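Write out the 3D structure for:
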Amino acid sequence: MLRPYRQLAGVPHLVSLLLWSIVGRVHLTGTPLALSFLVAGWTGSYALAGVVGGALTLGLGVAGPVRGRAADRAPASGLLLVTGGLYGVGIAVLGVLPTVLPSGAWPVAALAAFLTGLCTPPVTQLTRASYPRMVKGPVQQAVYTVEASLQEMMYIVGPMMAAMLVAFASPRTAIWACGVLAVAGTLGFLFALRRAGLDEPVARPESHSGKTLLADTGLVLSLLVATTTVMTLVSVDMVIIAWARDLGRPAMAGILTAVWGVGSVLGGLIIGGLRGEPRFALRIGLMAGGVAALIPVLPPILTPSSPWLIGAVLAVGGLAIAPAIAANNARVGGLAPHGRRAEAFGWMTMATTAGSALALPTAGWLLDHVGPAAAAGSATAAGLVGTVLALRVPKPAPEVAEAETSA
């Protein structure tokens, strides 16, 4: 079980690149929570908080393919410097708006959030596109799984950091801290990428130069699976935030999210060391089942709800999250043409952020008018749709299928 991880640790520069990529992305998990508290406190509405949060993620998604295409064609360092600086300015502005504008001006915050999202540094795309350049075979699947597990650690550290800052300082402090972390992490990742010799893009085959990646049905289906997966996960995040805020204990949101993430990390690390081909649809289905188990333990079905019971369900259900994400990432990387993987993961960013933009207002409306159980039900429905789609995603061609030779 540990062999792929030992091989991974021996690859020059890989561990440094992976760790800096996590530092450069952890703000992505804390910012939505901080922004939700900021806007909900400003406007008094979860639905409007969802709209502003959805605008941020929509901006991130719209620009994803463009940034990925740019990274495939030119040195990454320039792109990281420009986007990192602009993103930091945008986050600073978002923190100021509730102080200088009345709550009725929330559309200004939505516009600012969208523009900020457009400038999000493409650390995720560049990281995932670099793995096939550094490792092959079972080790490549292991690194995707480790990354998915560390990504779940981001869902522990980021929201917990934001929740604690909200509870003991203010939502403004929390969102500004996320902005500082974004800029610092982007710079660290930039230097790690240079040390690994991956700043320059790889040459792409002429046969793939003029084709749109969206002409590949298998790749499109895998992107849609990513959309439904994120719809599931961000809806549960919103449920946890709303439940904790209504309880009058905002720090509980960070604690429960951390419990959920710990389960995911453990599931990812165990599965990542096993051999055998990943069962893509099964992993997505298990994730949906874990979310479905939340429905009966949330209001209005169970009132009052127990934090211990909700935490137990999250811990067990979380075991399936990282394996599902890892399988989806590996499938996208395997189906993408050589020399265009950053663009493919840019489209994946668009797909996942579109999922957030769709799910956040929906979950917010259900929380305002029905309750947390209904919002968890919508998250389950998205996961079930993803399971059906995953059944139709083809395996990569034999020459790149080695990326999926472990569990």
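Residues 3-201+212-397 form a domain with the Growth Hormone; Chain: A; fold (CATH 1.20.1250.20).
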